[in-house]
Amino acid sequence: MARSDLSRLGLGLAAVARPAYITSGRAADLGDARGVEQLRDRTRELLDAAYAHGLRYLDVARSYGRAEEFLAGWLADHPEVSDVEIGSKWGYRYVGDWRVDADVHEIKDHSLPAFTEQSAQSLDLLGDRLGIYHVHSATLETGVLDDTGVHRAMAGLRERGIRLGISTSGPRQPEAIRRALDVRVDGEPLFTSFQSTWNALEPSAGPALAEAADSGARVIVKEAFANGRLAPGGDDGTAAARAAADLADRLDVPLDRLAVAAVLTRPWAGHVLLGPVGTAQLASNVAAVDVVLPDGIDDELDALAEPAQQYWATRSGRPWS
């Protein structure tokens, strides 16, 4: 398989713009250095490094603590940076009060008032730099994919030149993607960007994402590392994680690079989000573009997959740390 290119990689700030998240290894990676200014500085370092590496897609969300604020500050300090594309999301509110031990860190709300409030906040911080706005974790259960009032309000952003889309999570990702592809406002497809989980342990959204790409929509892959399960040191004791680590060893490729390279072999994957907490992790992740996977690797990757219900049950049980 051929070498990929850096233009398909993006940087996500979910793990560095709030003190707690569900990725593995945060105690070792961050320790107690989780104050607002400490994470602001860490975010700036990552943005500087990502830009130097050639990454030009940046992902934030209203619920990622101060991600939009940190990114807006970095952009203000770098007026020469005019070639990045920014995607954000509405639909969750961060309520963790900057505490690792908060009882609740975020609350989902896909109502029209939530969109009205959060889109105004995103635009206030990012202005005309905002290029894509996703419904955060749109599911069939919340009703947002059938809410014509929300659709009509979101279409107002489309008229401002902002691409609209959804991010997806959960075992019913394929159904949510296909439902969103059918949503139209004034005869035009409303959702033309899909940010979904796909990785070697949870590939079930692949066919639906291929359909989205065939329709002309953008596809952005998140959680390529399965929240740390597909990263060095992230073995959670499951058979799938052990098998992935064994495959990486046989290929003599670091596990994080194998995880990214596996996504890059998908022709429908427009961008693959990286979510490092430090520049060394970023450099290792970026090196995945140099990985050339052997022909026939898809059979071995397919063998790593867990049933979707099992994967998402495991993910929902991960602690915030």
TrEMBL record:
Q: Which Pfam families match?
A: Aldo_ket_red
Instruction: Tell me where in this chain the NADP-dependent oxidoreductase domain is found.
Output: 41-303
Concerning InterPro entries, the annotation shows: AKR2_Oxidoreductase (IPR053135), NAD(P)_OxRdtase_dom_sf (IPR036812), NADP_OxRdtase_dom (IPR023210)
Gene3D superfamilies per record = NADP-dependent oxidoreductase domain
Q: By its UniProt entry, which SUPFAM superfamilies does this protein fall under?
A: NAD(P)-linked oxidoreductase
Q: Which domain of life is it from?
A: Bacteria
Q: What's the protein name?
A: Aryl-alcohol dehydrogenase-like predicted oxidoreductase
The organism's taxonomic lineage, starting at the top: Bacteria, Bacillati, Actinomycetota, Actinomycetes, Pseudonocardiales
